[in-house]
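User: what does the whole thing look like in 3D?
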Amino acid sequence: MRNFDETTITDAVLERVRNAPDLRQRFVSEAIVRHLHDFVREVEPSQKEWAEAIAFLTRVGQKCTDTRQEFILLSDTLGVSMLVDAINHRFPGNATQTTVLGPFHVVDAPEFALGDDISGGMAGAPLLVEGSVSSIDRQPIAGAVVEFWHADAEGFYDVQSEAGLTNLAGRGVVRTGAKGEFWFQTVIPAAYPIPDDGPVGDMLKAQGRHPYRPAHVHFMMSAPNCETLVTHLFLADSEYLDSDVVFGVKDALICELETQPAGPTARGNWISKDMAALRYDFVLADADR
Amino acid sequence: MRNFDETTITDAVLERVRNAPDLRQRFVSEAIVRHLHDFVREVEPSQKEWAEAIAFLTRVGQKCTDTRQEFILLSDTLGVSMLVDAINHRFPGNATQTTVLGPFHVVDAPEFALGDDISGGMAGAPLLVEGSVSSIDRQPIAGAVVEFWHADAEGFYDVQSEAGLTNLAGRGVVRTGAKGEFWFQTVIPAAYPIPDDGPVGDMLKAQGRHPYRPAHVHFMMSAPNCETLVTHLFLADSEYLDSDVVFGVKDALICELETQPAGPTARGNWISKDMAALRYDFVLADADR
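Assistant: Here's the predicted 3D structure for the full assembly of 578 residues, as structure tokens:
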């Protein structure tokens, strides 16, 4: 096989990947080739433009570090992460809605006891988070693993500081109590621009887009026999709810902050000072749905 | 705009990139979004698969160095580079056929005088290269810049050694003489696997493909008012002419090596020992075609 031109090259490449021993690998490879070639055939990039595309993707990869994932940013800002999320969460029923993981999740975040202040000294007004985790048949799930992470009042995550992974703050893990309940104390996060000093930021500028996300707290929750839930709670008074740069906002995940005076809380916990309160009852889908 | 699902997310992203101030940027951005979303909709990746795709692209970017361009390898092995080449070189007329640039081109390669040995001590049997450069109306082009690079008898380029860019060999630049002629001495290159110790190598294995290219010498030629020519000459006795991993082979670029005894050469040059000879007359397209 030789002498390929624009009418024969695609079939030649498809023929070549047809030997993939794994059927899924073969299917995905064929789809990559078809769609990528279709894109090139539509856009007809000049050699210079294609070299620029190669250089752009290279910069995206080289911008990635232990604490920055520029390819996730690219996927998020092109709406692909939300599309993948939607495809994987059809018919959620009464299970809590999902949204993107984002690039700031850290594995092995520190464990906390219920009620702890998890802010790690982050700047911001005090925030009480009270919630619960149940199954879709409304049974509370004790011992569910509740992971959370959020930005500070300036809109920065812990891992964006120079300390990186060595000074985690505003993130952690708790386990739900006997009635599926959890709570922790932290600070109110601000809306923020995604990191836009790299190639994805350059892309957004070229596309005439702002880089902002509305204020939110990330959650990831898991329990035996349940599907792991990846979602956010968005703050109702935040800017950018209608123009989230990663297309992640859902009405069902927007929460009004409540006022909670010092003393016993609405959910029977106890705090020593006045706080804003963020409350939500999460429902995990069955793993075998 | 919020609450996006798989039926609405694509239009939402298209709407967002519609603000791109540059029309070409807008057109390309829209095409990227449509084709990328179509791919995802067809393949329906699991969250785990999408995370693996992100990790793969990150590895590709992180594998790139001053002397290794893994994204070009990816583009080459998926047939995209040859497709872009084909789209940009329709109707070549009698101009020399084009093929891929590949990942081993180095800017500012050393200049040589006509007839020099450019092998830099590379291993291999001696090879005489004699050629000419003319315009499509058969006028010889004096002073054309002829750049060339090739692997050694083991199939390795200079920049693949630990010395990297500090010990260039088997590459250089000469300028054609008054009759458009050029010649240099070097060694016969071998067929070789593209660098397959990285993510692109992993992909080829998963696709059940070999990583080999047939033996060849790269050329890039430029002259005033002519389109820069990027091409190879392939050696007719090489393996893999019909299964080049980057789909680059064209019959018009395959050359039989000739036998050239020491003394005056077929083209009026002079060599001191017996050599194989690679001869080709290149024709540059007009820049304004």
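In plain terms: Residues 64 and 215 of chain A are 24 Å apart (CA to CA). DSSP finds six helices and 13 strands in chain A.
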